[in-house]
Amino acid sequence: MQGKFKINKYFILALLVFIIAGFYKDMLLLFLFVILHELCHVLAAYLCGVKIKNIEIFPFGGVARIDDLDYIGICKEIIITMAGPLFNIALAVVLFMLYKAGAMAKMPVDMININLMIALFNLFPGLPLDGGKIFRAVLSLRIGFKKATNIAAYSGKIISVIIFIFGIYEIFRGVFNIWLLIVPFFLFILANNEKNMVMFMIIKNLLNKKKHLKTKGMMETMVMCAHENTSISDILKSFDVDKYHIVIVLGEDMNIKAVLTESQIFNNLTMEDKGFTIGDISEKIK
Q: CA 131, CA 137: separation in Å to the nearest integer?
């Protein structure tokens, strides 16, 4: 792995809050098992031939980021994503079996509970959780990466609100669980960040498609029609990461004015073209 570990600022904040609240032991165990969880993602990625750029540790877990933004395929994405939760479940089972076999004098309840918590929480179907990545991968087969990301991010926000409401409900029942109050806050922020990163990911992915085409020899294509007065920003918003796009430009008479590939569009964009239309780009290419 050529990447590095990064401790998110929210994790530092959460660490301080938990230490002040007297939960430093739980926080240290959480940190240990989150690191192991993320290393399993890295190992799975290595076995699948995918490079990991870095690992960022958050209060609820971590995020292993892929080296580039090429779509790696639903099978590889699910294998890499499931490696972390499966490790935590397996470790919890092994610890319980060791206790039952007499290898441990006392059942390691804290370690078992934390591992199960990390696994089950990360399987919720909302970004940036592992379950959200699987949810997005499956959805993207039907509706594309961009729409799938927006839905999975929205799901992450809903999950964070539900967890927070449940935490408040537990307080009225006389049970104070600091995890249920702090973690939803960070989850909501990161789910919103995932949604805001979609366009950046799509634009950066344009740079990688040439490499993908040379390697694979082919790519699924999406053909769209656009009026010549359609803004370039709207055209780019309609692009997705796992398809190559061809834009048919229609003039005022609704006849074909030009046929442009996404590479032609992207290669002819400059900082001064912010307010340009697809018609302007087609004239520029002539």
A: 10
Question: Looking at residue 125, what DSSP letter applies?
Answer: S
Residue 259 has pLDDT above 90, yes or no: yes
What is the CATH number that goes with domain 207-285?
A: 3.10.580.10
What b/e string do you get for 3-32 counting C-beta neighbours within 10 Å, with b at 16 or more?
A: beeeebebbeebbeebeeeeeeebbebbee
Q: Does residue 69 register a pLDDT over 70? A: no
Tokens coding 220: 């699924």
Integer Cα distance of 191 and 193 in angstroms: 5
Reduced to 3 states (helix: H, G, I; strand: E, B; else coil), residue 259 is strand
ω into 184 cis (within 30 of 0):
no
- Sorted by where each begins, the domain ranges of the chain are 1-123, 126-196, 207-285
Beta strand ranges found along the chain (DSSP E): 5-7, 52-58, 61-66, 221-227, 244-250, 256-261
Nearest partner of 163 among 116, 114, 126, judged by Cα? 126
Q: Is 56 helix (H, G, I), strand (E, B) or coil?
A: strand
List C-alpha distances in Å: 6 to 15, 77, 195. 15, 22, 21
Please state whether the predicted TM-score (pTM) of the whole model is above 0.85: no
Tokens for 61?
A: 């877990």
